[in-house]
Design a protein that fits this description.
The protein contains 11 helices and 13 strands. With 373 residues, it is α+β, with helices and mostly antiparallel strands. The chain has a single domain, classed as Cathepsin B, Chain A, CATH 3.90.70.10. Strands 1, 4, 5, 6, 7, 8, 9, 10, 11, 12 and 13 form an 11-stranded mixed β-sheet that branches. Strands 2-3 form a two-stranded antiparallel sheet. α3 packs parallel to α5 and α5 packs antiparallel against α6. 42% of the residues are buried.
Length: 373
């Protein structure tokens, strides 16, 4: 009996050691994108990630690698947010946050510009810090909602625009790029970006599948519509896009303890006791169902708090699939592993991906038919 107990003890110990084996990743798909950069002290991940996504689209469509301006979109989106907040008399969202369709909407109306033409940085600035800008804008729109003069003047829009110009610069009307003169609209067209070609997709049970609905999350201040798919088909859409050479824009939850940019992984262990250990080594993961995903969304365990850019896939030593996800928190090795990328396990993606944005040609044919794309 002692020998038998000793044997089982060895087996359990071996299993424990095996479970803690450090991650070993093999790249499966690695699509071309631009270098990882930092959004600085701003809440504009939506613009940084979606701009990175469009940069990869430019590479795919033209073969050119172009550094696009994230702040040009931010500059043109803030007045829209202010308009929405003031005209709804404060019964709306006004914050730094946004979603991928805000970038697509801006591109449709205002075009694109290269980073060299508009950085959003003023003289002697080398990083973004919007803390003061946001505080000033928030105070302004709240004042307009309070309407202390009892009759709101028409000056408020001009005042908001002036503050934006003071903090991040005036909008460029034309610029030179590689020896040619462009407007933001002609530059967008030269890069072959057609805003109408991009769709946003999600997966929740509180709306009919294969329909469009307005996703009820705080940063959807512009009331954008999303196509709704069953979870398995949602995941298949991500996989199909990457396999066909399309990168994917991602809105997700990174508030979990099992997400770590420092360790470079995001996982959902089957046993929550392993949550921290699983950032260092392989542990069995949860099987995420559609219902569990919905429950976690409705009880606010899953929240919409960050946007990133999916550029490929990997496998660990056990064959588990991971997604290579580009972040916008820089490449400082003390805080960001994998050169600024985070590897999302399939379980994490199933649970914590709020939505994706892709080119409509990246959607599987059968799914595209069901959505009438």
């Amino acid at each position: 009996m002692r020998h038998l107990l000793f044997f089982f003890g060895i087996v359990c110990l071996s299993s424990s050691l095996l479970a803690q084996e450090p991650y070993k990743f093999n790249t499966v798909i690695d699509l071309e994108t631009t270098p990882v950069i930092s959004q600085g002290r701003t809440g504009t991940c939506w613009s940084f990630s979606s701009t990175s996504f469009l940069e990869s689209e430019v590479i795919r469509l033209t073969g050119k690698q172009v550094d696009l301006s994230e702040m040009y979109t931010v500059r043109n989106t803030y007045p829209k947010k202010a308009e929405n907040y003031v005209m709804r008399q404060g019964k709306a969202q006004f914050s730094e946050g946004g979603l991928a369709h805000d970038v697509i909407n801006s591109v449709a109306q205002y075009g694109l510009v290269p980073q060299l033409a508009y950085s959003g940085l003023l003289e002697n600035e080398d990083h973004h810090n919007h803390a003061e800008l946001v505080a000033v804008l928030k105070a302004m729109v709240e004042t307009y909602v309070d309407n202390p003069g009892r009759k709101l003047s028409k000056k408020w829009r001009t005042a908001v625009d002036a503050v934006l110009s003071a903090y991040i610069g005036e909008n460029p009307r034309s610029f030179n790029f590689q020896g040619k003169s462009y407007s933001p609209e002609s530059f967008r067209d030269m890069l072959k970006i057609v805003p109408q070609d991009y769709v946003s997709i999600t997966s929740f049970t509180h709306a009919p599948y294969y329909s469009e609905f307005i996703l009820n999350i705080p940063d959807n201040w512009s009331y954008g519509s999303f196509y709704n798919l069953p979870l398995d088909e949602f995941m298949q859409s991500i996989d199909h896009a990457l396999e066909k050479g399309f990168t994917v824009e991602l809105d997700c939850d990174v508030s979990e303890r099992t997400f770590s940019s420092k360790d470079g992984v995001a996982v959902i262990p089957a046993n929550s006791e392993n949550n921290i250990l699983a950032l260092q080594g392989v542990y069995p993961e949860m099987k995420v169902t559609q219902q569990y995903r919905q429950d976690e969304f409705e009880n606010f365990t899953t929240t919409d708090d960050h946007l990133m850019h999916i550029t490929g896939t990997l496998r660990d030593q056990n064959g588990t699939k991971y997604y290579k996800v580009k972040n916008s928190w820089g490449t400082d090795e003390s805080r960001n592993a994998n050169g600024g990328y985070v590897y999302f396990s399939e379980s994490y993606m199933r649970l914590k991906a709020i939505s994706i944005t892709v080119h409509k040609d990246a959607v599987p044919k059968e799914t595209s038919k069901r959505l009438n794309l």
